[in-house]
Write a structure and sequence with these properties.
Layout: H1 3-47, H2 52-71, E1 81-82, E2 94-102, E3 106-115, E4 120-129, H3 139-157, E5 170-175, E6 179-183, E7 186-189, H4 206-216, E8 222-227, H5 229-240, E9 244-250, E10 254-261, E11 271-273, E12 277-281, H6 296-304, H7 314-317, H8 319-336, H9 355-362, H10 370-380, H11 387-418, E13 443-448, H12 450-454, H13 456-470, E14 478-482, H14 486-499, E15 506-508
Parallel strand pairs: 2-5, 5-8, 9-13, 13-14
Antiparallel strand pairs: 1-12, 2-3, 3-4, 6-7, 9-10, 10-12, 11-15
Helix pairs in contact: 1-8, 1-11, 2-11, 3-4, 5-14, 8-9, 8-11, 9-11, 11-13
């Protein structure tokens, strides 16, 4: 080999080494970028952990806040509002009743025929979207739209000869926003939630607004019961099962209610009820405790919301927010690495990723996670995401869902603790009196809302956490019952049971 050949060989070797060095450098940088993404997800997972010890702290905090809210107005983040429902439907109701359920991006109109003996003979329902512009306009425009929709529904069903039966025009009104009730059929709006912001409605009687709209539309109907969605769910749960003592709604928003002793409502010392009890609307979406596992993403979401420093519990567990928490984590992943390619501007837009889409990614069981890839591409404009990155996205969905479900479970057990149904109160209230063995009383919690009824993984995580917190001795006595359309039917049931009464059964002296 001559000098020229040797030089060429050396040159080729040097070039090969240089190319190899560049390739190794790229691999190292790629791995570093990948590990930055993994680290971001791991840090989020650690911050969102909900071990049973922490959940029990949330249980205790919920019970303490419930006590404080019953003791004085403004004494707690929990409103603990009187509902003026002192007894619940028992299955003996009969007749035809209507109901409205307003409380999210859709509203529902119902017509039911009750036949006594815990039977619903007929059940018609219509679901309609609320135009987004009406969510921020005037109360008159909003309720005129609701009243017109109800009138059209009644006219269609009016062809049935049974329409003219006695009490056929009593109406139950489920209004799923914080309301301070002044009677069973009247109450003032405290504030809006779930993206609604109709300023002239705040501190007005919502039933009066609806009744005026009904009159303007020429519809002769009487609102017999103003009901919160969770109270409606409790009513329908009790209609079928007398051991139902509490209800939880976990959908677009979230709330809970339960049956309390009237003498435990210290802030209303003159409260007298025929039954000795009172259903309390907790407005638990506003619950807060330092034991809640809040992350930087939750802090940013709250700061950018229209109700900053409000509805803290709701923002961690309800359907309006879970998808957006996932979006925020994916945004962080995209900023610390190029694993998702060029940064998509849609990642910076609030609520681009809805919770139903998040659930679809979470429950994607295809081998290559094709549904995840499709949603990332169509919704967030992120293309050609590698499989390992798609798996990380699924993990983020799991972390968000698991935390939400387990915190909701802790809230439920907190209610049971307050009324002595969690097994920690000894024989005094959680166990059947007079039984030597101290046998636990059967306790039913009615649950409604899309997160629980339609999102299988969420439901499994919640059920698992309730059992984990209560322990194997107590858990078998606590039954979580799924309610279908409970908030609407429950309003009609309460209208039925209230219409049958001739005297007021609740007095505040």
């Amino acid at each position: 080999m001559g000098k020229l050949g040797l030089g060429l060989a050396v040159g080729c070797a040097v070039a090969s080494c240089a190319i190899a060095a560049v390739m190794v450098g790229r691999r190292v940088r790629s791995r570093r970028r990948w590990w930055r993404v993994v680290r971001a997800v791991d840090e989020f997972e650690e911050a969102a952990l909900t071990p049973v010890g922490r959940l029990k702290q949330v249980v205790d905090a919920m019970a303490v806040e419930m006590h404080a809210g019953l003791a004085s107005e403004g004494g707690s983040k929990l409103k603990m509002l009187l509902t003026f429902v002192d007894s619940l439907p028992d299955g003996s109701e009969s007749g035809i009743y209507y109901a409205l359920h307003v409380g999210g991006t859709y509203f529902r109109i119902l017509r039911i025929q009750l036949g006594g003996q815990k039977s619903i003979l007929e059940h018609d329902v219509e679901r309609k979207p609320i135009p987004q512009h009406l969510m921020t306009r005037t109360s008159e425009e909003f309720f005129d739209f609701i009243a017109l929709s109800l009138k059209e529904f009644v006219e269609r069903k009016g062809n049935n000869s049974q329409y003219s039966q006695v009490r056929g025009q009593d109406l139950g009104f489920t209004f799923s926003f914080p309301v301070k009730q002044t009677s069973l059929s009247s109450g003032t709006l405290i504030k809006w939630t779930k993206g609604f912001s109709i300023d002239d409605m705040v501190e007005k009687d919502v039933v009066e607004c609806l009744q005026r709209a009904l009159s303007r539309r020429g519809l002769d109907m009487h609102v017999a019961a103003l009901v919160n969605d969770s109270v409606g769910t409790l009513a329908v749960g009790h209609f079928y099962d007398k051991d139902t003592v509490a209800a939880v709604v976990i959908g677009t928003g979230t709330n809970a209610c339960y049956l309390e002793r009237a003498d435990a409502v210290i802030k209303c010392q003159g409260l007298l009820t025929t039954s000795g009890g009172m259903v309390i609307n907790m407005e638990w979406g506003n619950f807060w405790s330092s034991h809640l596992p809040r992350t930087s993403y939750d802090i940013d979401l709250d700061a950018e919301s229209h109700n900053s420093n409000d509805q803290g519990f709701e923002k961690m567990i309800s359907g309006l927010y879970l998808g957006d928490i996932v979006r925020r984590v994916i945004c962080k992943m995209s900023l610390v690495s190029d694993i998702f390619g060029p940064f998509s501007s849609k990642l910076s837009t609030q609520f681009t990723l809805s919770t139903p889409l998040m659930a679809a990614m979470h429950e994607d069981d295809t081998p290559d996670l094709s549904e995840v890839a499709k949603i990332l591409e169509e919704t967030l404009d992120i293309h050609d995401v590698p499989l390992k990155a798609r798996k990380l996205v699924v993990k983020v969905c799991d972390v968000v869902t698991r935390r939400a479900a387990r915190l909701a479970a802790a809230g439920i057990v907190g209610i049971l603790k307050k009324i002595g149904r969690d097994g920690t109160g000894g024989i005094t209230s959680g166990r059947v009196k007079g039984v030597k063995s101290g046998k636990m009383r059967r306790t039913v919690v009615a649950i409604e809302g899309g997160l629980y009824t339609s999102y299988t993984v969420f439901r499994e995580y919640l059920n698992e956490a309730v059992a984990e917190i209560l322990g194997e001795e107590i858990a078998p006595y606590v039954i979580l019952k799924e309610m279908e359309d409970g908030s609407g039917i429950g309003a009609a049931l309460l209208a039925a049971s209230n219409a049958a009464r001739s005297v007021d059964t609740v007095q505040v002296l």
